[in-house]
Amino acid sequence: MRAVLEIDGRMPDLNDWRDAIQASPHKGNDMCHENANRARKLALQQRLPKFEGPVMITFFWVEPNARRDLDNIGGSARKWIIDGLVKAGVLGNDSQRWVRGIQEFVAHDPLEPRIIVEITDEMDFLKKGL
After folding, report:
1. Nearest-angstrom CA–CA distance, 117 and 42
2. Which of 42, 56, 76, 104 could be bridged to 17 by S-S, CB 3.0 to 4.6 A?
């Protein structure tokens, strides 16, 4: 089984989150909850199916330009998106029992920045070959 979550725009990067936490722990916590809830709502709106077992998750970060480092782009957003998928019931948990692997790629589109998250059940991924 395969499902795709599409998120318009970007999410704050790891530096943004760090700055929010340094300004106020509450501000950093709010940023975390806001973005996880954003992912949850979109997963429900896009009617992603419920996965019953281990998955592989691929993140495609489509940025407007090359200014942000890949490790900063996905550092916190990966966590928020996966938490949102759990809250939406798409994944049973975010432990290693459920999430067996994560891949990420970056591309550029100045007119339509977005995040594309592909969730594939582990067996489907293994059939493709590594």
Report:
1. 11
2. 76
